[in-house]
Design goal:
Layout (H helix, E strand, L loop, with lengths): L1 H7 L9 E10 L9 E7 L2 E7 L5 E3 L4 H4 L2 H28 L8 E10 L5 E9 L2 E7 L4 E4 L5 H9 L1 H25 L1 H4 L5 E8 L5 E10 L5 E6 L2 E2 L5 E2 L3 E2 L5 E9 L7 E6 L7 E4 L5 H53 L1
Antiparallel strand pairs: 1-2, 1-5, 2-3, 3-4, 5-6, 6-7, 7-8, 9-10, 10-15, 11-12, 11-16, 13-15, 14-15, 16-17
Length: about 350
């Protein structure tokens, strides 16, 4: 849920542009099993490494990232994240006082990163959020922090008084972040190339006589994809149920789309997929099972069985009648012979 909240405010990268983004989340009173601090980093919406306060180490989610940095990078990164972890813990206490909160679990979030446009234009951003709402953000053009809510005005004053920190923030967003992004793009060429989706359609019956058509779309990159079921060529947007887009574990993504139908109807259903890697939309039709042909085959088999049964019964009765006739004839002949013998 926290990751979804973070990604809701993420920059959407389209066309030939690229992005490098960090997301930090701190919890004042996490539920059982959750860490109180989490950090995750993305290049073009592909998760490259992550960290949380429970594992006390960074997890490199993409293998190609290991080739892009020196071994010492991971140790320095962990030290930096532990510093952020301590800072988030202190800031959560301060913010609860600012908002006059005495209990409950509260969330502090940070999103920062940069974007490289197709025309080599650049853009940097850094912003904090508290309990799901905007708190304060850095204006790169003005080189100052801007408070979004009244509770952030004290923070705005403190941050804007530190000229050295302002210059470092600007230098990172304007130069350092772009430098790292270009390096990652160079090392991750193969992994970050667009990969077209594949789609598989199947069906399953339910007790109420309906059927559920399922379309599994997988193997695609980047993450953004549109999937909808078509009925006789018309999009069934409201009727289509979609799952979230999730990582497949190999740098690609997968998702599902389902729809409930009456299998006895004569409508045509097609899974329709749109993705940036496709020259034309991908369409996979549901092939309805030939129930009528199946019934003809079953009927033919039943007819053959009935014919065999009737034929067998006829042969059986004919044989019995023939045997009875011979027995009667033998008895009649014996009696005649006996009579003739007696008469002689």
């Amino acid at each position: 849920m926290l990751l979804s909240l973070l990604l809701a405010g993420a920059v959407v990268v389209t066309g030939g542009s690229h992005s490098y983004q960090y997301f930090y989340t701190g919890l004042s009173d996490p539920d059982s099993g959750l860490p109180d601090f989490m950090a995750v980093s993305y290049v073009d919406n592909q998760e490259i490494f992550c960290y949380n306060s429970k594992m006390h180490r960074e997890d490199r989610c993409a293998n190609w990232v290991q080739e892009a940095v020196d071994p010492d990078f991971w140790e320095s990164e962990i030290r930096s994240l532990r510093g952020w972890q301590r800072g988030f813990r202190k800031n959560l206490v301060t913010l609860q006082h600012r908002y006059n909160q005495t209990s409950g679990s509260h969330t502090l979030q940070l999103m920062y990163g940069c974007e490289l446009g197709e025309d080599d234009s650049t853009r940097g951003y850094m912003q904090f959020g508290y309990d799901g709402g905007d708190f304060i953000s850095y204006d790169l053009s003005m080189r100052t922090w801007v408070a979004v809510v009244p509770q952030a005005q004290i923070t705005q004053y403190i941050l804007n008084e530190d000229n050295a920190a302002l210059q470092l923030t600007r230098a990172y967003l304007k130069e350092t972040c772009i430098k790292w992004l270009k390096m990652y793009l160079e090392h991750g060429k193969a992994a970050l190339q667009s990969k077209p989706p594949m789609a598989q359609v199947n069906d399953r019956s339910s007790r109420d006589g309906l059927a559920t058509l399922s379309c599994r779309v997988h193997g695609f990159y980047p993450k953004d994809v549109a999937v909808v079921w078509l009925k006789n060529g018309e999009p069934q947007t409201q009727e289509t149920s979609r799952s979230g887009v999730v990582p497949s574990g190999d740098g690609t993504y997968q998702t599902w789309a389902t729809i409930e139908i009456d299998p006895s109807s004569n409508h045509d259903y097609t899974c329709h997929v749109e993705h940036v890697s496709l020259g034309a939309d991908l369409r996979v039709a549901w092939e309805k099972k030939p129930e009528s042909s199946l019934m003809l085959i079953v009927g033919f088999v039943i007819a053959v069985v009935l014919v065999l049964v009737v034929a067998g019964a006829a042969v059986f009765f004919c044989r019995r009648q023939g045997a009875g006739y011979k027995a009667a004839s033998t008895r009649d002949g014996s009696n005649s012979s006996g009579s003739l013998g007696s008469a002689a």
